[in-house]
Amino acid sequence: MSQMIDRACDLEERHRAAALARWSATQTPRANQSAHECHACGEPIPEARRAAVKGCTHCITCQEKIEKYGKA
Fold this sequence. Notes:
Strand content: under 5%
Keywords: Metal-binding, Zinc, Zinc-finger
GO molecular function, one term: zinc ion binding
Number of helices: 3
Number of strands: 0
Shape: elongated
InterPro entries: Znf_C4_TraR, Znf_DskA_TraR
Oligomer: single chain
Protein name: DnaK suppressor protein
Largest sheet: none
GO biological process, one term: positive regulation of secondary metabolite biosynthetic process
Number of domains: 2
Structural class: mainly alpha
């Protein structure tokens, strides 16, 4: 009986780890891949900025606020 419980726990742990890995992959930005919307204000990031600044996650206005005040 205890072996069945151990196997069930192992299986559940593997399923949880796989689910967390899938979720985590959708949450972390890819290196050099810019966001389409600003993470601070939600406004679209212009294509020119996305092309010029690889991996950007904020619009120009919010990025300036972050650099000046430490937050958007």
